[in-house]
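Students often ask why inverse folding is considered easier than folding. One informal answer: many sequences map to the same fold, so there is more than one right answer. In these notes we will look at a single instance of the problem. The structure comes first.
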């Protein structure tokens, strides 16, 4: 769990070319779902390539508290002996999801239709994030929730003893909300229908089908209509977790802005609901290619090659692309600072309710580092200074947000003066090998502030 330990100040100094191969960790979204669905199956699910970041480890602990047997065999290989749909035991203690919105919201969904009472908490970041977006639809199944003002954690959920199926249109583009409703629908009789107006990452749908649930997806005028048949017996699976495109974003973006760089990032999952950043970077003129494109476990995968790109241009990022790159806007804003012209990002309100208000956190640090940022509730614009022209020389508050910390570490690799963050400890939630991986490529990262 981040936010409970001692802060780790970090500084990134301007560095020479980044070169080599960057093996980033497993996908965080798929790792959480592997553990949760494994816990809801009957029998043993085998997982390789699990992300062993703090967010996922907190989910593993939670699944154990609900009665599943979760075993770490080392080297990213894990097994989960599940208790079956509706088989969750009532945990003896509070479930602490640390820094993880995905963890808490999916687990709330998974327990919501079992007759158990569970109290959830997290770190200061997670306890500030809105949970009503999940507990509102769960109430339709018959689940009760009592939390702090504004629907904040700590919060206690009383699972529905006699759940009814639900038809729900998700009001915000959120894969976490969609997934919570689908996971709750697993233990309701009949058909649960979730409608999303904008497509969000579809790992839950794909994995539920993989675990043997009957689930269909239809594109209609209303949006994407997902229909799940309740009370299936989920079959245990052998899951190979693809490498995380959201983590790949950091070495890729670093290579684009550090002169002379050439970095290979192999085996990256390029599910179209996740790959929006790479499309955007190519539109900006990035020298970013997909090598060895192939399919693995039903997901498109490729090796990414990113080279220093001297002619990056600011672009308008279409709002309909936002969901497919939502976690990548912080690092995109760093690349935009090194481009010529304005990068205009619209339809990005959701950035304000992540681990931090990411528009605010990035804007504060970018402005202090000499970059012009304009912002509104749902949009922000970066006026790029071009390569070699970004001053830097600042210490930025990472606000318990791993993506803010990593984005500013990437920025400091190409600014005129070093860039520091007050606390890099949240990086361990999603990318525990970040410092070593970047150092191996040639980055100059140290654990102190200048
Ligand atoms: O479902 C998921 O695994 C995730 C969904 C997204 O959150 P929202 O559903 O809040 O958009 C994303 O930001 C998060 O990192 C992971
Ligand atoms: C938003 C993120 O995660 P979560 O919502 O799971 O905390 C993220 O990883 O960028």
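Output (designed amino acids):
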């Amino acid at each position: 769990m981040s936010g409970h330990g001692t802060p780790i100040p970090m500084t990134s100094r301007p560095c020479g070319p980044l070169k080599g191969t960057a093996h980033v960790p497993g996908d965080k979204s798929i790792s959480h779902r592997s553990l949760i669905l494994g816990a809801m199956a009957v029998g043993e699910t085998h997982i390789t390539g699990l992300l062993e970041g703090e967010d996922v480890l907190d989910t593993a602990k939670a699944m154990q508290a609900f009665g599943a047997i979760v075993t770490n065999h080392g080297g990213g290989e894990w097994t989960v002996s599940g208790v079956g749909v509706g088989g969750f035991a009532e945990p003896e203690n509070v479930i602490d999801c640390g820094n993880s919105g995905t963890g808490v919201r999916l687990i709330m969904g998974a327990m919501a239709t079992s007759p158990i009472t569970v109290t959830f908490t997290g770190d200061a970041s997670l306890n500030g994030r809105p949970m009503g977006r999940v507990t509102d639809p769960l109430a339709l199944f018959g689940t009760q929730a009592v939390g702090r003002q504004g629907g904040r954690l700590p919060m206690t959920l009383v699972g529905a003893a006699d759940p009814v199926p639900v038809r729900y249109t998700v009001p915000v583009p959120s894969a976490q909300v969609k997934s919570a409703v689908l996971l709750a629908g697993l233990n309701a009789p009949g058909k649960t229908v979730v409608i999303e107006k904008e497509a969000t990452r579809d790992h839950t749908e794909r994995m539920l089908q993989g675990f043997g649930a009957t689930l269909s997806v239809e594109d209609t005028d209303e949006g994407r209509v997902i229909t799940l048949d309740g009370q299936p017996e989920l079959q245990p699976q052998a899951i190979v977790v693809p490498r995380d495109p959201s983590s790949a974003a950091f070495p890729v973006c670093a290579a684009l802005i550090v002169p002379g760089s050439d970095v290979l990032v192999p085996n990256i999952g390029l599910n179209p609901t996740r790959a929006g950043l790479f499309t955007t970077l190519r539109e900006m003129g990035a020298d970013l290619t997909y090598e060895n494109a192939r399919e693995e476990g039903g997901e498109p995968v490729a090796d990414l090659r990113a080279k220093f790109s001297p002619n990056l241009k600011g672009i308008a990022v279409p709002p309909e692309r936002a969901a497919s790159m939502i976690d990548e806007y912080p690092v995109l804003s760093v690349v935009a600072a090194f481009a010529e012209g304005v990068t205009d990002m619209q339809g990005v309100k959701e950035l304000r309710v992540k681990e931090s208000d990411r528009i605010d956190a990035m804007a504060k640090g970018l402005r202090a580092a000499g970059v012009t940022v304009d912002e509104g509730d749902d949009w922000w614009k970066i006026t790029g200074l071009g390569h070699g022209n970004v001053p830097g020389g600042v210490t930025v508050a990472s606000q318990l947000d791993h993506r803010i910390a990593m984005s500013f570490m990437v920025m400091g690799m190409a600014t005129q003066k070093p860039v520091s963050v007050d606390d890099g400890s949240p990086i361990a939630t999603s990318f525990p090998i970040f410092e070593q991986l970047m150092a191996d490529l040639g980055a100059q990262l140290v654990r102190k502030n200048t």
